[in-house]
Amino acid sequence: MFHFAFFAAAMVAPGFHAPALGDDFGSAAGSPVGGALAATPASAPLPASVAASTAAPPPVQQCGYEVVAEYPHDSSAFTQGLFWHDGHLYEGTGQYGQSRLSRVQLSSGKALKTQPLSDDHFGEGITRWGDQIIGVTWRSGVGYRWRLKDLKPLGQFRYEGEGWGITMVGPEMALSDGTSTLRFFDPATMAEQRRVTVKLGGRPIAMINELETIQGKIWANVWMSDAIIRLNPADGAIDQVVNFSGLREKSGAVGHDMVLNGIAWDDQGQRLFVTGKNWSKLYHVRVTNCR
Ligand SMILES: [Ca+2]
């Protein structure tokens, strides 16, 4: 039977204060979703016209994980953005007065170079666009551009609403803002191009947080949960959920804010890295047992 028990566990986490998430996941965990998916084999043959007109939600794979390797992670880093480029991790962190962008050495977890944000900006997601790094902030409506090679600040831009996670998907920059909506921008002008609603079995899923583009799909943390979802950037439909239950405990994280957040993909080495806010470990993980 299709179930999302680990979402329920996240909903009752100490300090949890986001009933909207519970509503969404409560719906997703109910039998209508499971029944619909269980009754729809992945290979169900549908005429193209029917498939297009009904827009049935895709089957959703559930997966586990295994740890391939663990590395040190700066436990003062309130991880909000993470990506891999050319042999190094890049990390953006939050908290007022402590937000920064860093180039990080994988083996030591040490910052090789750091650039602070303004004290009145709460840092959020970061992504690479060519020879720039773009970053957003939580509630100030201000984004940053830095030069990739030396993290030199290149300027700022403005956007509407909150900033949570960002990732480049082809020529577009996807932005999450804590709702179920992903907005897509032209990274040159920051003009909004389009929006999608992230959905699981046809139901919106909110609290979409840190993002990563892997082989054309968007992977995302879901705030206050141990789940990482994979979705189609064209329509927002989730087609895979990876349950990272146990990793937070393994890392030694105990605070209620110290949740799984931060996904980086090393395309050349085909390595997936995950960590969490103020965790002392960063993990190279492999997704396993999908069903
Ligand atoms: Ca990322």
Describe the structure.
- With 291 residues, this protein is mainly β.
- It has one domain (58-288): 6 Propeller (Neuraminidase), CATH 2.120.10.
- It has helices at residues 5-11, 19-29, 31-38, 48-54, 247-251, and strands spanning 61-72, 79-85, 88-93, 100-104, 111-116, 123-129, 132-137, 142-147, 153-158, 166-169, 172-176, 181-185, 192-197, 199-200, 203-204, 208-214, 217-222, 227-231, 238-243, 260-266, 271-276, 281-288.
- The strands form 5 sheets. An 8-stranded mixed sheet has the order 16-17-18-19-1-22-21-20. It has a 4-stranded antiparallel sheet with strand order 2-3-4-5, with no helix packed on it.
- β7 and β8 form a beta hairpin.
- α1 runs antiparallel to α2.
- Calcium ion binds at residues 82-83, 167, 210-212, 263-264.
